[in-house]
Amino acid sequence: MENSPSIKILAVDDDSFMRQLIARCLPEPDFIVTLCPNAMEAMTVFKEKQFDFLILDIMMPGISGLQLRSLIRQENATIPIMLLTAKVDDAEGSLLKEISSDKNTYYQNKKFTKSELQSLIKSIMGRMWQAKQEKDYFKEMENDISLAGEIQKHMFPHWWSLDGGIQFCHYFRPYMKITGDMINHFKLEDGVFLEIIGDISGHGIQSALTMSAVENSISNYIRKTLLSDIQPHQILNHLQAFMEDISTEKYMTCLVAIVDFNVNMMTYQLAGHQAPIIFSPSQNKAIPAKDFKTGSIPVGLMKGTVYNESDTGTIQLPDDAIIFLYTDGLGDIQDDAGEAAGEELLQQLVSSISHEGLCPSTNFKIMDIYFKAGYTNISDDITLAAISRHTLRPHNYDFSVSPSVYEIDQFVQKANNLVLEHTHDEILAGKVEILFSEFL
């Protein structure tokens, strides 16, 4: 234990000879020993100073070593304690059972040598310090992962955006604090958007790092390429080359789509990824999955894979189309019985929640129903995104409120009722009521 700090020890024994023997066996600088003749004095000293290790005599008048241990444990549950005794255990091993009832208590017969005592204490403290270092290391790693997760969130598009009458929104929930999912939303020209959703295989740090690298690669590719020249198969070929260059064992399922709202057309290519759900509120139906081209294998799964333009599919979109993109973590959510939600449930929820059109809270409402229905056991990252024309129209209300407390109270109650009527959200309605009340 070279370069280790001095071990601060509190030794308690009513026998002055044993106290001096302990002090001589544990000299400075490796050890700093504080001696106490009884339990009462020891408790006072223990509360005043910091110690790494305790040595207690079992057979002491008044409060015994075992009783003192119980008092110590009320203050510190983990500090290692060595119990010294010359007492012979009974046939049932009662003493040993009582000592071993505490995992951080150790036994030493009083017939010890200097080297034995030092070796035992250093061995115990070495394990304790190593465990603490590992705990601190994993705590620091956990903090780093939390920070990485927060940084990753900023790599995603804003959760809701409105551009030229086209709205985009997404819901994202990592399985851990970091994710291997990605979602990209790029404007190519007025009314034309590039959508990329992907899922890196596996979980954890390696998947998250790969995802971050892929995100950066996509951004660089978009920045260096004429927007009019961007095609789904070319993006997939770029990603395939990138995955091969970084020599990762990971692969990625991916959907690349160019959505042109000017002509209601979507061109897309699937690389082992789920087809989107395209729902029409006016028709109250979704485009069947069989209408989508199957596509090719995941990006990076096989070296030398080439994505061809012939595999690109086109879909004619209804005027009010809502395009839902998602990763497979959504279908993998399970209830307590181990039953997976599956993709059919998502189809049903999309139909029931989106019948009036896409709104910023649509994805959150869908996920809320999953959780309320008992699908709470998540085993993969979840990403759910949607893009559509902004077809919702606001409801306008005009009120004239006189500067009186009574009329203000009447108005804020009406505001509460209106918000509740349209959103069925009591918390939001309450916040609106408080906001107007305080403002007016």
What is the CATH architecture annotation of the largest domain? 4-Layer Sandwich
Structural class: alpha+beta
Rg over CA atoms, rounded to whole Å, is 34 Å
Query: What's the mean pLDDT score?
Result: 90
**N- and C-termini, Cα separation:** 70 Å
Strand order of the largest sheet: 6-7-16-15-12-13
Strand coverage percent: 15-25%
Low-confidence stretches: none
CATH homologous superfamily title of the largest domain: PPM-type phosphatase domain
Q: Would you count the extended β strands for me?
A: 16
Largest sheet: 6 strands, antiparallel
Helical proportion?
25-40%
Topology as a string of helices (H) and strands (E): EHEHEHEHEHEEEEHHEEEEEEHHHEHH
What would CATH call the class of the largest domain?
A: Alpha Beta
CATH level 3 topology of the largest domain: Phosphatase 2c, domain 1
- How many domains? 3
Per the principal axes of the C-alpha atoms, what is the gross shape? elongated
Quickly count the helices.
12
